[in-house]
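=== RUN LOG ===
request id: a7f3
mode: sequence -> structure
chains: 1
length: 538
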Amino acid sequence: PTFIEGTSAWKHVGAAPLDRLQPLLFAVRQNTEHLEKELMKVSDPRSPHYGQHWTMDDLSVFANPEGTALVHKFLANFDVKSVSTSTHGEYVKAWMTVETANKLLSTTFHEFVSKKDGKTSIVRCGRYELPAELAAEVSLIGYTTHFPVISTLSVFRALRMDADGQATPKVISSYYKIDNNTVATSQSSNAVFETINQSYEPSDLKAFDSEFGVPAQSIAKVVGNNNPSSCSENPNNCVEAELDVQVITAIAQDTHTTFWSVPGSESFLEWAQAVASDSNPPKVFSISYGAVESEIPSSQAQSFDAEAAKLGLRGVSIFVAAGDDGVAGEGARGNPSGCGFNPSYPATPPHVTAVGATQGPESGEKEIACSSSTGGGITTGGGFSGVFSRPSWQDSQVANYLKNGPDLPPTSMFHSSGRGYPDVAAMGHNYPIVVGGSTYAGSGTSASTPVVAGMVTLINAKRIMAGKSTLGFLNPALYQLDSSAFHDITSGKNNCAAGAQGSATCCQYGFTATSGWDPLTGLGSPDFPNFSSQLEAM
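=== RESULT ===
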C-alpha cells in the first residue's frame, strides 16, 4: 500500500496544515562499537569489574559531537521554533511548523487520524531527504515515516466477586516466598513506563492498598502527563497504568517510585531521549507496552537497544512485558489469518529483561505457562527476534532448547538464530485492579513484569545496604544462576492469541514449555529466597 493509504490504525486526511506545529527527533549516530564490551565488563558476574557502573559523564565516550553539531548547523538554516538536545548530543528534538518541516526534509507532510477514536491526529511523510554529509551522521528521524503501532499489553474485564483465584499481593508474595516487601533503602528506586495517555488515580491506589492489606503506598514523582480524572470517565484510559502502579508498589513497598509518562506517537524514542538526559535515573524500569517487532524500523529498535545498554552501564535494569498473544502477536486476536511468528518489541532487544506470564498459583494450582487455551485469558508471548541475533550469555540454554525442545515448529518459520525471549516469567492471570473506584480483573505479561521489577527492587536494596552496586543489566547474571533460583515451568503452549477459553484464535504453530529455558517462560519464575540470595552474593 502507498503511504497515502495510511495503515490499519491511521486514516489519511490530507496534506497537513502548514501552520501546524510538528516535532522532528533526530537520533544522531553514536560511537557504540565498544559499548557491548564495556557493558559486559560490569554486567558479567565472572568479570573482575562486575558492578563497577559508569556515571552519566562517562557516557560521553559514545557521543558523536561532530554529528550533533552538523544537525544543529543544518537546523540553523530554517525557521525552527525550539531545539532541545540530550546531554551527550545523542538526540536533537526540534519543533517547527509543517511548512518548515516540508522544506527542511524536501517532502510533504500529511495528516492522519486514528481509526480507533476518530480524533487523535498525527502528521507523517512518505519519505524525506537530507544532505549526504548529514545523512551519514543521523540514524533516523522520529515523527517522519513511521506510524505509531504501540499498544498496552493487558486484557481486563469486570471482576466477578466469585471469580476463583485472584493474584492479590498476598497470594503473589506467599507463592514466590517474599517474606518482606519493604524496600530496605529508597536509593533502590524504580519506575513504571507509561504512554498512549495512560493515567493513574492516587485514590485508586489508596483503595487498592486498603482492599488488599497493603500499607498505604504512593508515587514519589510524576514525569510527563498524568490525568487522574480520566480514570472514572473511561477505565480504558487508566487500566494499564493503574495495574503497573498498584502491582509494583505492592511488591516493592516504601521506595521512590516514578510514574514516567512519554508522548504516545514515538514512545520508545521519546523515552530513550529522556533517559539519556537523566543524571540519576530510577534503578529499575518496568515497561508493559509493545508492538510487533517487524512494524518498527530496525534503526529505531537499534537506537532503543543502545540506550538500554547505556542504562545498563549506569546500573539500571529494564523489564519488558513479552506480549499477550503467544507467538503470533495481537494481529491474531479473532483473526486466524494473523497467525505466524511475530515477535514483540521492545521485549526483543537483548539489553532488556523480557518477562513472560504464568498461571495456576492464584487458584492454588500448579504453575504453568499462561494461555487462553487453559483459561488464562492471555497467552504468554515468546519467540526469537528478527532484528537482534542471539547473545552469547543465553547461547547454551537456547541452543539446548532448539536441539531438544518438544514439538518444535519448522525452523524455517521463525528466526532461530535470533535473540530468544522471554528471560523470566511470573504470574500473569486474574490480577485485581482498582480503576475509577471499581475493581476489575486484569491478565497479562503487563502484570508479571512489575512483579519481577518489584522483586529486583527489593534485591537491589539489599545489595546497596551491603555496600554493593545495583544489579544493572541483569541478563548475563540471570543465565548464570543455579537452577534453584527458579521454578522451572514445564507445561503449556503459546500458539493461541488472547481471548476467552474456547473462542480465542489458536494457531497451528507455537512453542511448547519444557525443562530449562523455553520461549514461553524463559528460565522460569523466581523462587525468591534463592533468586535473591544468589543475586545478592554477586
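=== NOTES ===
Residues 445-465 form the longest helix (21 residues).
The chain has a mean pLDDT of 95.
=== END ===
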